[in-house]
């Protein structure tokens, strides 16, 4: 098994996935612009700031992940050539920490925040609060969608790293 190829393939798959954050961020920004230009009701105008904030956050997340993973591709080969076992150990440590983070943040905290936002929707009637909660739910749903696939890729990559580590010890 070529763990360097697996690492590079994982990073390239991440490079394909993270632009979805950027695309959704742009969509939220366009929605904000649309609400600003065309919004006639209080409810429509209330969406301007929440969608602007959500769009900006998604853009920042997407750009940050894109450039981080892009730089990793070139670093993988250098680190692997320097010391293959240290490369595998560091990648395994990073992958396991990331998987724990996904379980804590993406699959526990985000659903709880979505539930809280849905409950707040039941008890508030002001347009700004309703727009903020709905936009938050939409943004978190995007994060769940994109990070759900990223979690699956990271989990598969982690298994490949474990196999490579075991093969290296033989």
Write the layout of secondary structure elements.
Blueprint: H1 3-17, H2 19-38, H3 42-46, H4 48-82, H5 84-123, H6 127-169
Helix pairs in contact: 1-4, 1-6, 2-4, 4-5, 4-6, 5-6
Helix content: over 70%
Q: Whole-number average pLDDT? A: 94
Helix and strand sequence:
HHHHHH
Largest sheet: none
Short description:
The protein is an all-alpha fold.
Care to describe what's here?
- The structure is a single chain.
- With 170 residues, this protein is mainly alpha-helical.
- It has one domain.
- The protein is built from 6 helices and no strands.
- Helix 1 packs antiparallel against helix 4 and helix 2 runs antiparallel to helix 4.
- It is elongated and about 70 Å long.
- The mean pLDDT is 94.
Looking at this protein, list some descriptive labels:
elongated, mainly alpha, 170 residues
């Amino acid at each position: 098994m070529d763990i360097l190829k697996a690492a590079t393939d994982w990073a390239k798959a991440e490079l394909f996935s993270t632009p979805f954050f950027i695309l959704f961020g742009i969509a939220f920004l366009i929605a904000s612009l649309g609400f600003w230009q065309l919004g006639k009701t209080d409810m429509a105008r209330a969406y301007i700031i929440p969608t602007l904030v959500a769009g900006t956050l998604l853009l920042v997340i997407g750009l940050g992940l894109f450039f981080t993973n892009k730089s990793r591709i070139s670093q993988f080969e250098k680190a692997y050539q320097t010391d293959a076992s240290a490369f595998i150990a560091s990648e395994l440590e990073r992958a396991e920490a990331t998987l724990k983070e996904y379980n804590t943040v993406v699959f526990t905290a985000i659903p709880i925040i979505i539930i809280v936002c849905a409950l707040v929707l039941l008890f508030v009637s002001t347009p700004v609060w309703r727009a903020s909660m709905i936009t938050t739910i939409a943004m978190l749903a995007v994060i769940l969608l994109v990070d759900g696939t990223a979690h699956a890729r990271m989990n598969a990559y982690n298994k490949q790293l474990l196999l490579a580590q075991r093969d290296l010890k033989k």
